[in-house]
Amino acid sequence: MKSSTLEPTLAVDRLLELYCEWRTTCWDVRTAYGRFCTVRACDRPLAYAAYQGALDREELVAGAYADQVSLASSLLERDSSASPAIASP
After folding, report:
1. Cα dihedral sign, 39-41-43-47
2. What dihedral angle (degrees, nearest 10) is formed by the CA atoms of 26, 29, 31, 33?
3. pLDDT, tens only, 61-88
4. 42 φ, ψ to 5°?
5. Cβ-Cβ contacts under 8 Å for 79 (sequence gap 6 or more)
6. How confident is the model at residue 78, as a pLDDT?
7. 15 with 68: CB under 8 angstroms?
């Protein structure tokens, strides 16, 4: 594989990794909220703190995923504009 095609390939690989990480943190938010909704009143402050922490982690990963989408898109766009168009017969 040429180094010019390696960079977009690695960017897309990282994009998929971040997508999976984001989906995992989404599930963590859902789980933490479920716990918050079902705990005894005396345990709610701790459960709510756990829920907030899960939301914070999800926000960070979502931001990293969004940044990677932009990077991968620009690399793929750059590569497609640098490649000569193939004429149709």
Report:
1. positive
2. -140
3. 999 999 999 999 999 888 777 655 544 4
4. -70, -20
5. 4, 5, 8
6. 82
7. yes
Alpha carbon distance 54, 66 (integer Å):
18
Domain boundaries, the chain: 3-75
**Rounded Cα–Cα distance for residues 37 and 31 (Å):** 10
Q: How much is the pLDDT for 84?
A: 55
Rg over CA atoms, the chain = 20
Output 73-81 pairs: Cβ under 8 A, ≥24 positions apart.
Answer: 75/7, 75/8, 75/11, 76/8, 76/11, 76/12, 79/4, 79/5, 79/8
State pLDDT tens for residues 37-50: 999 999 999 999 99
What was the pLDDT predicted at 76? 86
CA gap 22, 38 in Å, rounded: 25
